[in-house]
Specification:
By secondary structure, the chain is of the alpha+beta class. It has two domains: about 240 residues, FAD/NAD(P)-binding domain (3-Layer(bba) Sandwich); about 90 residues. Helix content is about 30%, strand content about 30%. The chain has ten helices and 20 strands. The strands form four sheets. The protein has an eight-stranded mixed beta sheet, with helices on both faces. Helix 8 runs antiparallel to helix 9 and helix 9 runs antiparallel to helix 10. The longest helix has about 30 residues. About 50% of the residues are buried.
């Protein structure tokens, strides 16, 4: 029997897309989000074609692309800005969609939030799950505010630091990859028309992507600095210091940042739950089950694909447990390939000059393999 009432825990990309996909199929979705305010983090995001395909399937792509910047190539440059090569990017969402789009994460999340409300999904903010009690045909949930509910299925879409994993008895935890990232949103230079990456400088690499008609997202991949720096308000002076040595448009962006620029700094972590993601009528998906370094820009795509496929399977004719097994069988090989290749890229960044290193090759092979439907 298809599920009729689903609790979705976590209101990010994964949870929002899942609520929309369930509502489209006639299921009642209820969303709880731990944050008392529901919005996206303000830095940029790269959406590959397969992410755009998932957004199209839940009806928000047109709004996202109204502000985003689509492009079909990326450029590799040396640290001084000299062009190394220009690479076409595979159309992982099909030939009719852009291969890539740069977007402001807030624009994407606002589009998803508005669509979730428009579909009549019940959204409750500022709470999460305190306890799960499963039976053969339902899950009873006690929330952190003391309220309760009964559902046919409970989905943990609460990110890389998921609390739902523990509720399911999954002990896998994220681990540092060995590199960190500085992120800023800046004015978009007139010459910027696609994503570009700078190699060979004093850090692992630098890059940027256009994300709106007048804004861009710029980043610097570095070694792991003091953990006390991690957060949304890292010192701009530190980014300027660490970014010294990069020229071209990246250097221009860095020099132009006003003193009140918000700098987000994070250690990059990864996780893959290599056992079943489900227990009875509960399951974790998206970054709660798998999260990779952002080196192939497939994080959002893997999460959105999870959500669309899960909604399709659990609203079909199979029993819930069988649908979850089929979901796992289809998703695990795909996300494992993306994660392992992303980790390989990170290892090559950390140890430049590794014999046999082929970053462009592994990125191309990964994206080409993703042109096959999820």
């Amino acid at each position: 029997m298809p599920v009729e009432k689903v609790l979705v825990v976590g209101g990010g990309i994964t949870g929002s897309v899942l609520c929309l996909a369930l509502a489209q199929r006639g299921a009642e979705a209820e969303l709880v989000e731990l944050s008392p305010q529901w919005f996206g983090v303000g830095h940029g995001i790269t959406l590959q074609g397969n992410a755009l395909k998932a957004l199209r399937s839940v009806g928000v792509l047109e709004r996202v692309l109204a502000r985003a910047v689509p492009f079909d190539i990326m450029r590799l440059r040396r640290a001084d800005g000299e062009l190394i090569t220009e690479l076409p990017t595979p159309h992982t969402g099909g030939p009719e969609l852009p291969s890539t789009a740069g977007a402001l994460r807030t624009d994407l999340q606002n589009a998803l939030c508005d669509a979730v409300y428009a579909h009549g999904v019940r959204v409750r903010l500022g709470l999460s799950v305190e306890r799960l009690d499963q039976s053969s045909d339902h899950v009873d949930v006690t929330f952190t505010d003391g309220s309760t509910g009964r559902y046919d299925l409970v989905v943990g879409a609460d990110g890389i630091n998921s609390r739902m994993r523990a509720h399911l008895g999954i002990g896998t935890r994220p681990h540092p990859v060995g590199m960190s990232i500085f992120r800023v949103v800046a004015d978009r230079p007139a010459e910027m028309d696609c994503a570009e990456v700078y190699y060979g400088g004093p850090r692992y690499k630098a890059g940027y992507s256009p994300i709106s008609p007048d804004q861009c997202y710029a980043y610097l991949l570095d070694e792991n600095l003091d953990a006390s720096l991690v957060g949304p308000r890292a010192p701009l002076g530190l980014l300027r210091e660490r970014g010294t040595g990069y020229g071209g448009t990246w250097g221009k962006i860095l020099a132009s940042l006003p003193d009140d620029t918000t700098v987000d700094y994070r250690w990059i972590e990864a996780i893959l739950v290599d056992e079943a993601w489900h227990r009875g009528r509960t399951v974790v998906i998206g970054d709660a089950a798998h999260a990779c370094p952002p080196l192939i820009a497939q994080g959002a795509a893997m999460c959105a694909e999870d959500a669309v496929l899960l909604a399709e399977l659990v609203t079909g004719d199979e029993p819930v447990e069988q649908a979850l097994e089929h979901f796992m069988a289809r998703r695990l090989p795909r996300v494992r390939m993306v994660l392992e290749n992303s980790l390989q890229l990170a290892a090559w960044e950390i140890a430049p000059g590794t014999p046999g290193a082929d970053p462009a090759g592994i990125m191309s092979r990964t994206l080409n393999s993703l042109t096959v439907a999820a």
